[in-house]
Amino acid sequence: MAFPERRSQLHLSRPYYRNKCVFRLLEHGLNAGHVSISGMWNRPITLASVVFLLVILSVPSFAADPFAADPADFTLKKIAEGIYAAIGSDGGRAGSNASFIVGSNGVVVVDTFEDAAPARDLLAEIRKVTNLPVRFVINTHYHLDHTGGNAVFAQAGATILAHRNVRGWVRTENLKFFRDPKPEQKAMVESLAQPDMVYTDAVDIYLGTRQIQVRYMLGHTGGDSVVIVPDANVVMAGDLVWQKHLPNLIDATTSDWVKTLEKLLADHPTATYVSGHGDVATVNDVRDFHDYLVTLREAVAKAQAAGKTDQALVDAVLPQLQEKYGKCDVPSSSSCWGFFKPFSTRNIMQTAAELNGTKKVPVPADKDGGGK
Ligand SMILES: [Zn+2]
After folding, report:
1. How much is the pTM?
2. What is the pLDDT of residue 12?
3. How far, in Å, is the centroid of ligand 1 from the Cα of 276?
4. Closest C-alpha among 295, 269, 266 to residue 282
5. Residue 16 pLDDT
6. What are 96-152's pLDDT values in tens digits?
7. Ligand 1 centroid from CA 183, angstroms
8. Residues in the chain with pLDDT < 50?
């Protein structure tokens, strides 16, 4: 379970360091239970170990892993004619899901993973499917695990499109995911490729004959969009839908989020959904996720009504969540959702803050679009 743990920490303000091979190696050695690199430092340094280190530190990161422990960064799934979901592995470098839509005169990519390497791999996969140009990238929200690969597609000629708050927040709010950002991490966030074009509520894209609807929806960050392909009955929901995974509520307003999910289910009752994390989602998965948020809100509200706060509130709510979502002693059980261990307590505390009116969420950078 080292990978989900490692993955989830990204959402919990751990540095985004995984594309640095030396840290990846140390993590594997220390956490994944393979070969312990840490033991090396206690032994006399031999020429062989120096050569070994020089070799592993000098090759590109995905070739640098001598333990071959990483799962593939993502799995490509064809979910409709000309529509592909790229499902990121928990703990892989993709960091989230992405997808792409092929029309008659071009391609639209939805989200770009967490960094350039898997984004380049995604572009290579698109090239195997079609030679049509990637004309647009849509960012479903500003979080780094969905925008980190933007530059790869911008360099390939795509126009990056997002809700105006994404442009306002992508280079600022992402810093909060680093506990104490190093200068190079700060520089990385501050140089993320921003959306070239923004909208307030909605935009339609015509890829030749194929219509793609982009719609702003509330709940997860205040700057989220879903992407709908009506002719295929597909909805790319970004992080508004987590498939059998607990969500990151750091920027969330769950009162709005529950309503958004109800609207999606009412408007698209038979669609195939691409989630932000987890697998491709069915309508039932979306309903289960809606029910998770409702369960969480109700349990927290009940504990608050009984006068509970802080640890007493967590102690009152956690067993209820554990019962439905945290039975992970049987890992394949439907009552074991991804990210339960790292997110459950935070979900409770963040919902408690929302319900008692103390939660801080990002505010629009300025009235006319934000960002510089
Ligand atoms: Zn995400």
Report:
1. 0.82
2. 35
3. 6
4. 269
5. 34
6. 999 999 999 999 999 999 999 999 999 999 999 999 999 999 999 999 999 999 999
7. 24
8. 1-70
Q: Give CA angle at 89 (85, 90), nearest 5°.
A: 130
Residue 49 CA to ligand 1 centre (angstroms): 38
Taking the centre of ligand 1 as the mean of its atom positions, its distance from the CA of residue 246, in whole angstroms, is: 11
First-to-final CA distance of the chain: 41
Query: How far does residue 96's CA lie from ligand 1's centre (Å)?
Result: 5
Q: Return all residues near 62 (Cβ < 8 A) that are at least 6 apart.
A: 70, 93, 117
Token pair 């009504």 in the structure block, residue: 305
How much distance in Å is there from the Cα of 93 to the middle of ligand 1? 12
Phi, psi angle pair for 142, to nearest 5°: -85, -15
Q: Residue 234's beta-bridge partner residues? A: 229, 272
- Give pLDDT tens digits for 226-259: 999 999 999 999 999 999 999 999 999 999 999 9
Q: How far is ligand 1, taken at its centre, from the CA of residue 169, in Å?
A: 15
Q: Which amino acid is at 304?
A: Q
Domains in the chain with CATH codes: 2-58 (no CATH), 74-242+249-283 (3.60.15.10)
Token look-up 């791999």 returns 121
* C-alpha of residue 369 to centroid of ligand 1, in Å: 22
Ligand 1: centre distance to CA 225 (Å): 13
Strand partners, 210: 207
Centre of ligand 1 to C-alpha 155, Å, is: 23
CA–centroid distance, 220 to ligand 1, in Å, is 10
- Report the amino acid identity of residue 73: D
For tokens 């990637």, the residue is 134
- Ligand 1 mean position, distance from CA 247 (Å): 8
Report how far ligand 1's centroid is from the alpha carbon of 101 (Å): 20
Rounded to the nearest angstrom, the distance between the alpha carbon of 239 and the centre of ligand 1 is: 5
Within the chain, where are the H helices? 2-11, 21-31, 47-58, 116-129, 144-147, 150-155, 164-169, 183-190, 254-267, 283-305, 310-325, 340-355
Q: How far is the CA of 75 from the centre of ligand 1 (A)?
A: 16
In the prediction, which pLDDT does 372 show?
52
